[in-house]
Every structure is written in C-alpha cells, then in structure tokens.
Write a structure and sequence with these properties.
By secondary structure, the chain is of the alpha/beta class. The chain is built from 14 helices and twelve strands. The strands form two sheets. Strands 1, 2, 3, 4, 5, 6, 8, 9, 10 and 11 form a ten-stranded mixed beta sheet that branches. It has a two-stranded antiparallel sheet with strand order 7-12. Helix 6 packs antiparallel against helix 7.
Length: 359
C-alpha cells in the first residue's frame, strides 16, 4: 500500500492538561449538535443507560475467554501490544493483518484478541505476527477485551516495559507508524496517544495508546482490572476511555498526544470552519469539544500527517458531516483494495454494536 507524501506540519508530543475553558460537560453536546439533535442524543443515551443498567443487574453479561493459543512470532523486546479485533462474520481482513504486522515490526509482541469467531484460515493466518491469540465472548468492548487479555498475557510473559492498547476501529495506516512510535518512546514514561478529545472531559482517544514505565503501566493495569462489563457503550466509554486519562493525571503520570486538540484547531482554515456550520465561523474552536477524528478528519490527514481514518466515520458518518465522500482523494492511496475489502466486510455490522468499540 502506498503512503502519502510527508505532510508540511509534523506531529509532536503535547502534554494533556485539564481544560477549564471549554463549555460545561452537561452542555458540551451543543458544540456538535443543534438543540433538537442534542436533546434527541440525550434522550437516546438516557434510554440506553436505563435499559443497560436494568439488564446488567437482572441478566449480567457472561463474558470471558474461550481460547488462548500461542502465535508463531517469538517474543522480542519487552514491549507488549494488546490488539482487539471484531467483525460481523468473524473474518480478519487483510487490512487488520497488515496493522498487526506493522505493530510487530515496531517492536511489539502482539497479543491478538478477537471478540468474534474467526474462521480457521484467518485464525491461522494472524498467528504469523502474534505471540498469543485470544478468543473471547463479545462483552465489555475494547476495555473488557484488554482487561482479559492483559491477565492472560502477564501469565505467559513478564510484565512489560511498554504496553500498547490498540484496536481495529481505524482504516490505514496511510503513513509509516515507526516515526510516531519513536516520538512516543522519546517522551519517557507516561501514557501516550495519537489524538486527544475534550468530549466528556479531556482524554486520550483509545484506538492506540502506549503506556511506558513501571508505574504508568501498573496504573493502566489497575484501571483495566477494575472495570466491569456493561451493555452500555456510553458507560464503557466513560468508565474505560475517559476515566483512564483522568486516573493517569491524578496519579501524576505524564499524558501526551501527538495530535493535540489545540494544534488541530489551529490548523483548521476558514473553509473547514464553514463546513462545520455557522456557529464555528468566528468562535474559538477549542470551546467546542468536537471529536477530532470525525470533525477534523481532513485537517488531521492533509495538514498534520495523521495516519488513520475512523471506520465508523466512513461507514456511518454519525454527525452528518459534509464532504466525506471525498475521503479516497484526500488520502490518495494508489492501492486501496485492502481498505475497500475491509469496509465491505464491516458494512454487515448489526445496528447498535458501534464500530468505534470505545473511541
């Protein structure tokens, strides 16, 4: 797969800080939605929480690991990656296999976790770049899977110096990941991500997170072990993804993003502002906790060198963002067959699952 030419503005680590200047948490949805859509969203979340809470109490989800088997890759440096997969049919696409191979090439011992039931040929193929393969029931989304996988991985391998949490909710990468991983590793100890979001409170988005150092990794593992599976995606995001950054900051661990929210907002031009709606024409964008991987996808890729595009954005476009049909021209990939095949496979996903796992 060909990669894009180097972007004029490169990524760099920006420390995450608690933001007090954004609009209040209870009203943050107004940043992305009209009042009517905001009320509909609030009603939907309220219904989901009520229903999920009732079902979780009456009929608790029965999660758990159903298979643990070694992969063909021999452990290398003491860097562990927990990579989550899910697809409607259980198939493991060529794009996902490529993502796993790239993480392995970056020096990680990849533990592959599937919340689905992959066919035999795919299960065998993914072993090439993995040290361990785990099959589990589809509960708890990504954080539930990482929790279960961490327990089994630590039984098989020593506690790592680096712990990567990743999932298959992104298309790509369109650019080499090695320079980004090097920037993470150059940041010392802490928790490092690609992008940060202000929605629900400042946090690192969890499709790719790297914890480095004994104390930060211990905090991440404690956080994972404390989580309980829920049918509510909203609750999982709050208690898993958003609470993780908060917990790390409270423990005084460094948290940093390669594509900080302020840096992304600074790269947004007038045309991009106009496409978001009239309220953004003159307002300071940092006041609105938009999802950078959705609302600023074009700026991230074209101006900042971001290597991914969210699968949910392409398939569902939940925010009704304009201009999304041009994404193939923006990423400019000559050989996109693997991505198109992956998208065709994921279009079969049932309503309500959520392609973002968390975010």
């Amino acid at each position: 797969m060909n990669v894009l030419p180097r972007a004029p503005i490169g990524p760099m680590l920006h420390d995450v800080k608690v933001v007090t200047r954004a609009i209040p948490r209870a009203l943050h949805g107004f940043g992305a939605h009209s009042p009517w859509r905001y009320l509909c969203r609030a009603a939907k979340v309220g219904f989901e929480l009520t229903t999920a809470s009732l079902l979780d109490r009456v009929v608790p989800e029965r999660g758990g690991v159903t298979e643990v088997i070694e992969g063909c890759q021999k452990p290398k440096r003491n860097s562990l990656a927990l990579y989550l997969h899910w697809s409607p049919s259980g198939r493991i696409s060529a794009m996902v296999r490529r993502q796993v191979a790239i993480w392995a090439d970056c020096g990680f011992n990849v533990v592959f976790i599937s919340n689905a039931d992959p066919p035999v040929e795919d299960w065998r193929a993914i072993s090439e770049h993995t040290v361990l393969r785990i099959r589990r029931r589809n509960t708890g989304r990504d954080f539930g899977a990482w929790r279960d996988a961490a327990a089994h991985a630590l039984f098989h391998f020593p506690r790592p110096d680096e712990l990567l949490l990743a999932n298959d909710s992104v298309l790509g990468p369109f650019r080499p990941l090695h320079p980004l991983v090097d920037l993470w590793r150059g940041g010392g100890e802490g928790l490092f991500g690609m992008t940060e979001s202000l929605g629900g409170g400042v946090h690192l988005q969890s499709y790719a997170l790297l914890a480095r150092g004994e104390a930060p990794i211990a905090t991440v593992l404690d956080h994972l072990s404390s989580l309980r599976d829920s049918r509510s995606k909203w609750r999982t995001v709050q208690q898993g993804e958003i609470a993780l950054t908060k917990r790390m900051l409270q423990a005084e661990h460094r948290c940093a993003a390669l594509f900080a929210y302020d840096a992304v907002c600074a790269a947004v031009d007038a045309a991009a502002r106009a496409s978001l709606g009239p309220r953004f024409a003159a307002a300071e964008l940092w006041r609105y906790p938009l999802n950078p991987t959705h609302h600023f996808w074009r700026v991230l890729i074209r101006e900042l060198g971001f290597p991914y595009l969210k699968t949910e954005l392409v398939l569902r476009n939940p925010g009704g963002l304009p201009g999304l049909a041009a994404w193939p021209e923006v990423i400019q990939i000559a050989d996109a067959e693997a991505i198109w095949d992956h998208l065709a496979m994921m279009r079969d996903h049932p309503p309500g699952y959520g392609l973002d796992h968390a975010q």
